[in-house]
Every structure is written in structure tokens, then in C-alpha cells.
Write a structure and sequence with these properties.
heterotrimer; A alpha+beta (161); B alpha+beta (288); C alpha+beta (775); A: Ubiquitin-like (UB roll); DNA polymerase, domain 1; 5-stranded mixed sheet; 5 helices; 5 strands; C: 775 residues; Aldehyde Oxidoreductase, domain 3; 4 domains; 7-stranded mixed sheet
Chain lengths: 161, 288, 775
């Protein structure tokens, strides 16, 4: 069984990495590229902990083969902050005390970031449906909604240069 | 998952050649949302997986006035859900596409995959059946068309041969004054699977129902049409009483089992309720 | 946007400070066990039994061993320490000659890749002789049922003692009758027959709650490595590193101090990661292969072969007078423990008979073994199921007598000093205050209008509205612990505990240390040590972390403060009674220019040839006084009476936390516990096939946990009735919020539809068919 060379853009960088044909994208990111931010909570697309962006869209990376990401662009939680500067969503999550065990958080943030890219001013219902693919057992979701709402407002507000 | 090889065809012909060689030991991969969980559970252990990512033909989504809606088999549900042409002209299909899994699943899950997996609860089947869609299948001898109502052969079985591939789903335009709706019942609002799903499509003419199509999911080994209910509606004005009557007839078409998702009694009850609701919604959309 | 910061400039107790590990978590940088990959690591997989009860005739591992990339394949034969009569589930590392649940491990593989390990499992052949099985608890209780335990295996009451710290008197427990009844208990008071005879209203219902999974997002995971001296290191996702160490030592028969358990960040536990499960087998594979070995359970394995909460069946009969006077209560509780004993029998008795002042009661409890995965704790073990019963029953009594449901409860609710079922007096608690706050809530007061308004659906609409409430709580666990507090040479403070920080308790502990010592919480750092470096400590469970470890940290911080002041007094030739600590300095009260900085004191304790001792506060307390915590919840629902779908419009949780050390963290616990409770109420349940014992819903598609789209905002109201012994009056917070929701929801559904559902989950099917049955 021959390994394949996967050529992709990962978190903004052109990357070439050897992957097994039977490796999922999630496995390749975690084991071959050391990007352990996306997590495996179920392996079957039912929990959202593995959420990454594929060409800007949120996908369950446990359901993709690594080779399917060839010539495409993947963003993980590690690519959400910008050179050490937290994304407004990350900042809001910290200040509102959102993360408890933390396991679901990378997936939730990636889903929320994709939501805000599509709906810059989401209603509470849109936010809830936007992260409905992400199970969380610790928080009950309430503080996530508050944080995402605030981050959306902050992003919409005019910023100084 | 156990180990396997991948094939990465760059066009349909290359894909068909691979299928001709290794069809029986291969599985086709589009979104992977059914295939990968099945492989992880050991339900299926193919030696080869054929990735359709590079085959442009199966990723097209087109709408033409005469030919109708053409959905490439690997087009993700999310794309169908958001497409204005589908929402405006084939609303029941958009309804169903919006319900699959979660947004992370819908960005991968393909309409074709949903049909080829052929679960009794396949959400894309009822609206496509109600709109009388056809499956365009490619094989070693060329392409053939199969009405979707003949596509399902049993639980998780279709009429596709091991050397064949579903290329696209073609849905004829329903015409003016036509409306459709798909509603399913699930215990949760997302990440769930239909306990019962019903699609209704009605076309009005001179104040009466010229054509009615009703399709049911998760109440038989395959998605089915409720033909007796359809017949009761055609040529008549769609009053609430007639809609109730059609709902009763739809219950009689259903042959549900009891399983961990729901009892047969509850499923029959849901067929009645959802048939009534989708007919009412379809009628409203037809009038609009 | 802001750059990553730790805690800001604040003082201590009572402030809503975000957890300091927030930035690490939102950037995905915190490592969990599955993220750790040392060089040469192998992947483990377990072969599991497909049968609920069978004899193992023969196992052939030769083909698996021959697969390239496979480094070890082992069976029970390779582990001589395994006992035929495994006293606990942890001891049943690999089945010896009999399997007692579908999913029980029979063989283990370590391989270079996970895919190769999976293929190796396919190559192991096991010949089974299938035996009759007892899957349903009621069937399993009958004399002559197929036996589950090896004859002579003792009932395991360790879980009960660890969690509830409730002891029933020795005479309360009796010998088992049928072979699978592993524990029995009975508590009585007065004369129930007479009580029923004098009642005007006697009602009897049977309440059923299925097994549920704790639902943590991170599956069990462990990494094991032995060094060349025979010392074992375990990186574990665990709620108690010392407990893990003890269990592994016990199972493998090696000394505890040859094992180091490093508690890696735990992605949720809720009671399911207390008992050892994967650690022993992974350690054995690592020893056999002489390589690091990592085992991560799949979600399917978690659901099929984890350690869920028990199935509970409660037959509850109550008698009251028509004016609402309580007369008698009789109950039979059955707890299905799966294949090994370990339920908390006493908790059920306490909450059935001790929430309200029943003058006569007779409560019997039985634990029964079945051929299913054995149970472990799940956040307030036994309490949600029990409160579901008693709070549903109280509601029905109130409705039948046309009494206000809250006023009826208030009239009979226990207070401090009232006797519990075991005749111990109730400790101080906030149950009355919590109930009062729910009664005063606008959503409770306006419920009649809200229901009548019916959201515009009209009086005869398909959608109906209902409002329901319930109250429940947790007694609060106790466990000895230890902590140290050090003053560093730069004037900062370091706190060391062994406490796994699951619930964000570390920030609360830092706040306690800060307030007790007299320094900004900014200058306090908490370290969670491993089992080599930390003082022995208990489980992060039982809602006891802040209550016990917080008390330990408080005491150690006070000890450090005393030492600091004594050193300062000697240096400044002042009396300790005249000294204060403020702004990083020890000052003489009223004489600001006479001072010495904490840094100076810290340095003096560290200088070469110095005669000044380093400041090291130490505490090692044990506890005897529980601090019960109560929560009341209110639910406003809209029910589609045709499909049975429930829309939860509003949900409120009122909870007495004694003293909110960190209100932000406390709210998070209240909301998270509430949603777990709602899951149990609305959608969750492990469904086992009664004939084969196989789990019918082994995926998160069919084991349904609630999503954000299923829920409203969870409104939280914090009540503070200080506990006498908790640090700054704090009580345990984690468990009370998971208790009342099933009853609150069932009560709301009855309010909306008239249908009373006594079996969880309150599913759309049960509601829709219940509505149909009424017609």
C-alpha cells in the first residue's frame, strides 16, 4: 500500500506531506502534521469536535480521506488566531469563561467562525443552528451563544486602523 | 478503518475503467458521510476506494427550463440547500437537503450518496420521488436512465451494478402552479435521522389538483410512493377533509417496522400527520 | 481583539474571573492524551465479546501475531495476576474463561498503526459456547436466573462511600436472596400500613430511567510507558490520579510507588473516568512490547462497553390526607448495576424518604446484576432518577388535591435538623431558599397566563404550553486531601494540589489562596501535581473539590500567612498582631514606612547560609461534615400534540452554592449540569436488546445528546446559604444541577397535555401516543 503525497494549503501555508490512502484528513492533520487542535470525539460526523474549514466551509474532517484535501485549502483552529493575536471569537470565549474541559472548543470555534463569515449579524437562532453540529457536554451552550453574539457585534463595529 | 488503496480518477471515463476492473472490491467515495462510518464499523471493507473529488461531471448543479434540474451525484447537500434555483423551483428538495446531519456533514454529504446508500430513511429520496426524478447511470455500455421509483431494490440496495456509477439526478420541471414540501420527524433538531419523512408535491389547474405525488421515507424497506393517496387527490379540490382522507390512505401504504428509533404505531401516526402537513404546505406553495 | 493574557488585576473570592487556561483551550494548544505521541509509540486495540454471556472455549491468536506491524497479541493467559473472581470491573482486564457482557475485552493487540491493529483483531479467532443471559433486571432478579457474578464475589460499595458519604447502619443491609441480587437495603419508620389506611388519597406509580452514558466528549484514553527500572508512567484522562494509581497497582500487583500517574487534561468525566478501565491493559501491552502504548476508546466502545449510570426502576406508593398532610410512603427501588456491583443504593433511599417529612415510610432497595456493561457514577449518582420519582409523585398529589405545587412542597420540605432516613440530622442547607426563589420567579408567577396565551396557537391549537418545576440536590462528598502553599523568592505564591482540574476549580482554589493569604490572585499559581509530586488527594467528583481541596488550600494559605507574618515580625521586631499584608508587603498597621516586601521574605528563606526558613504552608485535612446543595429548576415548554415534539422555550436553574467563589465558573457548572439533566429528561437512553444484550444505539446518531438548537438560554440564579465548614461558606456546585430536570420536564408535559409520563426519556413518541390514548 503506497503512501500518497498530499499537496495542500494548510493554515495558509503550502504543505506537502506523506499520507496513507486510508488515513482520514483528521488523522493526517493530527498525526502527520502535529496539528492536534481538531479532536476525535466520535469518528462518525456526529459530534463536530473534528470541524475544520475546507475552502472556507466547515466540514467534519473525520469523514474525509486525507487525499480528498489535495489542491484544496484547509484551516484548523491553529490557523484561527493571527500570529498570536486571538480572533474576536477566541477572545470572547476566554472572557466569558466558555471553555470548561475544552475538548469541544476548537470545533465550536471553527463552526462559529464559518457562521460569522456567512452571516456577519446572526440572530440567536442562526447561531444555535450554526453550532448545532457541535456537541458540548460541559457548558450547556449558553455562554457560547453570548460570546459568539458579542464577537459578531465586535467584528461588525468599525475598527481603528 | 482497515487498510485499503485509493484510486483518484480525473474524469468519468477513468472512473468507469477502474470500476470495470475492480468494481466488486471497490466503493465509490463522494462525501464519505455514510461510507466512512460504515467502514469504521466494519460493515463494509472494500479493498479499493474510488475518490470522486476529481471527476468534474458529478459535481455539476444545473437548472434548465426544459430539461429541468440536474444534480451531479457528488454535489453536497449544503450546496443544494442554498441554491436559489432549487429553493424557488424545487423547494421540497431544498427542504430535505437542509435537514441532513449538521452543517459540517452537509458540506460533504452528497445527494447521490444519500440515494446510493439507499437507507429506508434517506431524506433526499421522498422529494425526488415526488418530483418524479430520474437516475442517470453510467456503465461500461454507456449511460442509462432509471426512474427513481425503480432505483431502490431493498434495504441498502439499488439497481446499480458493480461496474456502474450514478452520475446525476435529473428532475423535470414541475410546471406552473406547483408546490412541494418535505417534513420529517426527528427527536432532535439537528444531527438526527428521520423516524418518518414525507414529501408532497401538488400541481393545481383550474382550482383542482391536477397532479399529486406523495413519497414516504422510513416506513418500508425502501422509500416509497403513496399511490393510493395520490389517486384520491387528483382531479379534486384540495379541501382539508380530502387532505385528511389522503393522509389515511398514505398510512395504509406504509409498512413500518418497530426499531430503536420508533414503533410501527408511532410511525403510522406520523405518516398521517406529516402527509397532512406536507400537503397543506405544498398547496400553499403552489398557490403562491 | 486582544493579545493573549492571563488573569487580570483582581483580588480573590467572589470575583468572576475567566479560567487562566482559556487562551490555551481556545487555540487548541492544551494537550489531551490522544495528542501525545512519543517516539516509538504503538497503538492498542481490544477484541471484545459479541455475546452477553458465554464460555470461552478457545482463542487462537497465531494469525494475528503473524501480521506484519503487530508487536503483541495477548489474552488472559499472558497476565498471571488476573483473578478468576474479579472483584471489580477493573480487575476483569481480559476475560479468563467467561464473558458477562457484550463488549467485554477478550484479547488485546499492540501494533505500529491503528489500521494494522484493527486488521489484527479480525485475525483472532475465538470459540464461544453461548450461555443463557439475564439482560432485563426484573428477569435477572428471579431465583434461577443465569448467574452474572462468579460465586463469592463481594458487593462493591466503594463507589457509594466515595460519592455520597452516606452510610446506612449495618442492620439496614441484608443478605441477598436471588443469585443476581448483590446488595439490599431497607429503611423504615413508623407504620406505613396504618398511614395508608388513614389516607384519603393513595397513588402508586412505577418510574423507569434507562442506563445513560456520562457523555464526555473525550473518550477514555491512556498512554503507558515503563522505564528500564521497571517504573510505570501513565498519562491518563482521569478524575483521580491517585485512585487510578491505586487501582492499577492493585490489579497488576505492583507497589503504588512504582507507578506515576500524570493527569493529562481531562475532556470531561462526570463520574465516568473515576474507576480504572483502560489503564491496566495498556500498561500490560507496554510492558510486553517494551514500547510506549496508547489506547483511545472509540465512541462505539464507550457506548457499548463504558461504565454508564445504572438503570433504575422505582415503584412508589404514597398516601396523603385530602388537606395535603403526608401520611405514608412505600417504595421499591431496583438499580441495575450491569455485570459488576457498584451502585449507590443509599442515595435513592435518602432522597425518596428524606426530601419531605414523611411520618411513615418503608423503602427497600435492591441492586441487581445483569449481563450488561457495569456501571460507574454519573454526576449525582442515583439522585436524578430518584428525584424524578418523588418530584413527579409530589406534583401528581398536588394536582389531584388542587393545591399549588410549590406551596405544597414548601409545606413539607425538610429543614436543618430534621432526621434523614438514616436518622442523621439534615445539615444546614438552602432547600427552602431555593424553593422560595423559584416561587418568586416571574415565569412561575405568570404561568397561568403564559399557558393560556398559548403563543398565539389558540386554545385548541395543536401546540400546547406547559410549565413545570422540581427541586433536588446532592449531599456533597467528602474525602481527605492535602495542599501546600509556597512563597517564592520573588514574592509570588505557588499552590500545589493533586486535584485534577475538571470543573475549572483551579481558578477558584487560586482565589481562595489569594484571599486567605492576602495577595492578588494574579500572583497565585496553582499546579496540579502528578502522583509522584503532589500530596495524596481524592477524586474530582462528588461536588467536593472546592469544599475539601478548597478548605485544604485555605488552611495551607493561612499557615503560609502565619509563617510569613512570623518571619516579618522577627525581621522588623514587631508583634505579629500588628502586621498586615497589603500590596505585596508586610506592613505594621498604621506605620506605612515600616514594611518588608514578600519578595524579601521569600528571598531570605532561600539565601545561602540564611537562618530564615522558607515559607511552606501545609495542610492535610479530613472531613466529617457534608454540605448539601439544592437546586430547583423550572421549564416552560411547547408541545406539538400531534408529533409529540417538545420545544423547550425557557429554563431556569436556582441553586444554593453556599458562597460563589467564582460566579462565572459557578454559572458554567449550573448550565452544564442542567443540560445534562435535560438530556436525561428528553432524549437519552442506552437501549439494550433484551434477548442478545447488544446495544441497539451504539453511536451518537442514535444515542442522542442535546444540541444548541434544541435549547434556550439557561437562566441561572445563585443563592448563597453559607455552609458552616466550607471555605468562605462554599458548597459543592457540580452535582445539584443535574438532578431536577427530568421531573420538571415531566411536570411541564403534564401541565401542557394532561399526559403523565413515568418513563424516561420523555420522548416525542411517548407524548404523542399518550395524547392519542387520552382521546
Amino acid at each position: 500500500m503506497a503512501k500518497q503525497i498530499l499537496s495542500s494549503t494548510i493554515n495558509g501555508e503550502a504543505v506537502e506531506v506523506l499520507v496513507q490512502p486510508y488515513e482520514t484528513l483528521l488523522d493526517a492533520l493530527r498525526e502527520n502534521l502535529g496539528l492536534t487542535g481538531p479532536k476525535e470525539g466520535c469518528g462518525t460526523g456526529d459530534c463536530g469536535a473534528c470541524t475544520v474549514h475546507l475552502d472556507g466551509k466547515p466540514v467534519a474532517s473525520c469523514l474525509m480521506l486525507a487525499v480528498q484535501a489535495r489542491r484544496r485549502s484547509v484551516t484548523t483552529i491553529e490557523g484561527l488566531s493571527d500570529n498570536g493575536v486571538l480572533h474576536p471569537l477566541q477572545d470572547a470565549f476566554v472572557r466569558h469563561g466558555v471553555p470548561q474541559c475544552g475538548f469541544c472548543i476548537p470545533g465550536v470555534l471553527m463552526a462559529a467562525a464559518a457562521l460569522l463569515a456567512e452571516h456577519p449579524k446572526p440572530s440567536e437562532e442562526e447561531i444555535r443552528y450554526g453550532i448545532a453540529g457541535n456537541l458540548c457536554r460541559c457548558t450547556g451552550y449558553t455562554k457560547m451563544i453570548t460570546a459568539i453574539t458579542e464577537a459578531a457585534q465586535a467584528a461588525a463595529a468599525p475598527r481603528s486602523a | 478503518m482497515r487498510r485499503f488503496e485509493v484510486a483518484l480518477p480525473e474524469d468519468l471515463d477513468e472512473c468507469l475503467r477502474f470500476l470495470a476492473d475492480r468494481g466488486p472490491e471497490s466503493k465509490l467515495l463522494a462525501g464519505g458521510t455514510d461510507l466512512l462510518p460504515q467502514m469504521k464499523n466494519g460493515v463494509t471493507t472494500p479493498k479499493h476506494v474510488i475518490d470522486l473529488t476529481g471527476v468534474a461531471r458529478v459535481h455539476l448543479l444545473e437548472s434548465e427550463a426544459k430539461a429541468g434540474l440536474r444534480i451531479g451525484s457528488a454535489v453536497p447537500a449544503r450546496q443544494v440547500e442554498l441554491d436559489a434555483r432549487v429553493r424557488n423551483g424545487y423547494a421540497a428538495i431544498a427542504d430535505a437537503a437542509a435537514l441532513i446531519g449538521s452543517v459540517q456533514v452537509r458540506n460533504l454529504a452528497s445527494v447521490g450518496g444519500n440515494l446510493c446508500n439507499a437507507a429506508p430513511s434517506a431524506d433526499m429520496a421522498p422529494p425526488l420521488l415526488a418530483l418524479e426524478a430520474q437516475a442517470a447511470i453510467a456503465g461500461p455500455k454507456g449511460e442509462r436512465r432509471v426512474p427513481l421509483s425503480d432505483f431502490f431494490a431493498g434495504v441498502r440496495k439499488t439497481v446499480l451494478g458493480p461496474d456502474e456509477l450514478l452520475v446525476e439526478i435529473v428532475t423535470p420541471p414541475p410546471g406552473p402552479r406547483s408546490g412541494g414540501s418535505y417534513i420529517r420527524h426527528t427527536p432532535r433538531r439537528e444531527l438526527d435521522i428521520a423516524v418518518v419523512g414525507v414529501a408532497s408535491q401538488v400541481t393545481l389547474s383550474n382550482g383542482v389538483c391536477a397532479k399529486a405525488r406523495i413519497a414516504l421515507a422510513a416506513v418500508a424497506p425502501t422509500p416509497i410512493r403513496a399511490t393510493a393517496a395520490e389517486a384520491a387527490l387528483e382531479g379534486k379540490a384540495l379541501t382539508p377533509e380530502l387532505i385528511d382522507r389522503a393522509a389515511e390512505l398514505a398510512v395504509q401504504s406504509a409498512r413500518p417496522i418497530s426499531d430503536q428509533r420508533g414503533s410501527a404505531d408511532f410511525r403510522r401516526h406520523l405518516v398521517r400527520v406529516l402527509t397532512r402537513r406536507t400537503l397543506t404546505a405544498a398547496l400553499a406553495r403552489a398557490g403562491a | 481583539m486582544s493579545t493573549m493574557k492571563t488573569t487580570r488585576d483582581v483580588k480573590g473570592v467572589g470575583l468572576s474571573i475567566p479560567r487562566p487556561d482559556g487562551p490555551e483551550k481556545v487555540t487548541g494548544r492544551v494537550p489531551y492524551v490522544a495528542d501525545i505521541k512519543p517516539r516509538g509509540m504503538l497503538h492498542a486495540k481490544l477484541l471484545r465479546s459479541p455475546h452477553a454471556h458465554a464460555r470461552i472455549v478457545r482463542i487462537d491468536t497465531s494469525r494475528a501475531k503473524a501480521l506484519p506491524g503487530v508487536r503483541a497479541v495477548i489474552t488472559a493467559k499472558d497476565i498471571p495476576q488476573l483473578k478468576k473472581k474479579a472483584p471489580t470491573r477493573a480487575h476483569a482486564v481480559l476475560a479468563i474463561d467467561r464473558v458477562v457482557f457484550v463488549g467485554q475485552p477478550v484479547a488485546a493487540v499492540a501494533a505500529d498503526e491503528l489500521a494494522i491493529a484493527e486488521e489484527a483483531l479480525d485475525l483472532i479467532t475465538v470459540e464461544y459456547q453461548i450461555l443463557p443471559s439475564a439482560v432485563d433486571p426484573l428477569a435477572s432478579m428471579q431465583p434461577g436466573a443465569p448467574p452474572v457474578a462468579e460465586a463469592g464475589t463481594e458487593a462493591d460499595t466503594s463507589e457509594a462511600l466515595a460519592h455520597s458519604a452516606v452510610a446506612l447502619a449495618k442492620s439496614d443491609t441484608g443478605p441477598a436472596k436471588a443469585v443476581n441480587v448483590s446488595q439490599q437495603a431497607r429503611v423504615e419508620r413508623g407504620d406505613v400500613a396504618k398511614g395508608f389506611a388513614e389516607s384519603d388519597l393513595v397513588i402508586e406509580y412505577t418510574y423507569r430511567v434507562p442506563m445513560v452514558h456520562q457523555g464526555y466528549l473525550e473518550p477514555h484514553a491512556v498512554l503507558a510507558e515503563w522505564d528500564t527500572n521497571g517504573l510505570l508512567t501513565l498519562w491518563a484522562s482521569t478524575q483521580g490520579s491517585f485512585n487510578t494509581r491505586s487501582e492499577v497497582a492493585d490489579v497488576l500487583e505492583i507497589p503504588e510507588n512504582t507507578i506515576k500517574v500524570i493527569p493529562v487534561e481531562c475532556g470531561g468525566g462526570f463520574g465516568g473516568k473515576i474507576r480504572a478501565l483502560c489503564e491496566p491493559i495498556t500498561a500490560v501491552l507496554a510492558r510486553v512490547t517494551k514500547r510506549p502504548v496508547r489506547y483511545v476508546m472509540t465512541r462505539r466502545e464507550e457506548l457499548e462497553a463504558g461504565m454508564p449510570a445504572p438503570q433504575v426502576i422505582i415503584r412508589l406508593k404514597t398516601g396523603v390526607k385530602k388537606d395535603g398532610t403526608l401520611m405514608a410512603l412505600e417504595a421499591d427501588t431496583i438499580l441495575d448495576s450491569g455485570s459488576f456491583s457498584g451502585t449507590v443504593l443509599a442515595v435513592s433511599a435518602v432522597f425518596l424518604g428524606s426530601m419531605y417529612k414523611w411520618p411513615n415510610f418503608d423503602i427497600r432497595g435492591s441492586e441487581v446484576l445483569t449481563h450488561k456493561p457495569s456501571v460507574a457514577a454519573y454526576r449525582a449518582p442515583g439522585a436524578p432518577q430518584t428525584i424524578f420519582a418523588i418530584e413527579s409523585q409530589m406534583e401528581q398529589i398536588a394536582r389531584a388535591l388542587k393545591l399549588d405545587p410549590v406551596a405544597f412542597r414548601q409545606r413539607h420540605l425538610i429543614s436543618e435538623g430534621d432526621p434523614m432516613v438514616n436518622n442523621q440530622p439534615w445539615q444546614s442547607n438552602g432547600a427552602t431558599e431555593v424553593l422560595k426563589r423559584i416561587a418568586e420567579h416571574p415565569m412561575w408567577k405568570s404561568r397561568a397566563e403564559w399557558v393560556k396565551g398559548n403563543g398565539g396557537h389558540g386554545a385548541n391549537g395543536v401546540k400546547r404550553r406547559g410549565v413545570g418545576m422540581a427541586i433536588g440536590g446532592w449531599l456533597g462528598g467528602l474525602q481527605p486531601t492535602g495542599a501546600t502553599v509556597r512563597l517564592n523568592p520573588d514574592g509570588s505564591v505557588s499552590v500545589l494540589t493533586g486535584q485534577v482540574d475538571i470543573a475549572g476549580t483551579n481558578i477558584a482554589l487560586a482565589q481562595i489562596a489569594a484571599s486567605a493569604y492576602g495577595i492578588d490572585v494574579d500572583k497565585v499559581r496553582i499546579t496540579t501535581g502528578d502522583t509522584d509530586t503532589a500530596p495524596v488527594t481524592g477524586l474530582s467528583a462528588g461536588s467536593k473539590t472546592v469544599y475539601t481541596v478548597g478548605a485544604a488550600v485555605l488552611e495551607a494559605a493561612q499557615d503560609a500567612r502565619r509563617q510569613t507574618l512570623e518571619i516579618a515580625a522577627a525581621e522588623m521586631e514587631a508583634s505579629v498582631h500588628d502586621l498586615e499584608i497589603e500590596n505585596g508587603k508586610v506592613v505594621v498597621r498604621g506605620v506605612p514606612d515600616r514594611s518588608i516586601t514578600l519578595a524579601q521574605i521569600g528571598k531570605k528563606g532561600n539565601l545561602y547560609m540564611s537562618k530564615v526558613q522558607p515559607v511552606l504552608g501545609v495542610s492535610r485535612p479530613a472531613f466529617s461534615k457534608q454540605a448539601p446543595g439544592f437546586a430547583a429548576q423550572l421549564a416552560r415548554v411547547e408541545v406539538d400534540t400531534e408529533t409529540g415534539e417538545v420545544t423547550l422555550r425557557d429554563f431556569v436553574v436556582v441553586q444554593d452554592v453556599g458562597r460563589a467563589i467564582n460566579p462565572l465558573a459557578v454559572e458554567g457548572q449550573m448550565q452544564g449540569g442542567s443540560v445534562q439533566s435535560l438530556g436525561m429528561a428528553l432524549t437519552e437512553g442506552l437501549q439494550f436488546d433484551p434477548d442478545t444484550g447488544r446495544l441497539m444505539n451504539p453511536s451518537l446518531l442514535d444515542y442522542r445528546k442535546l444540541t444548541a438548537a434544541d435549547l434556550p438560554n439557561i437562566e441561572t440564579i445563585i443563592v448563597e446559604v453559607p455552609s458552616p465548614a466550607g471555605p468562605f461558606g462554599a458548597r459543592g456546585v457540580g452535582e445539584p444541577p443535574i438532578v431536577p430536570a427530568p421531573a420538571a420536564i415531566a411536570n411541564a408535559i403534564q401541565d401542557a397535555t394532561g399526559v403523565r409520563i413515568t418513563e424516561l426519556p420523555v420522548s416525542p413518541e411517548r407524548i404523542a401516543l399518550g395524547v392519542l390514548a387520552q382521546k
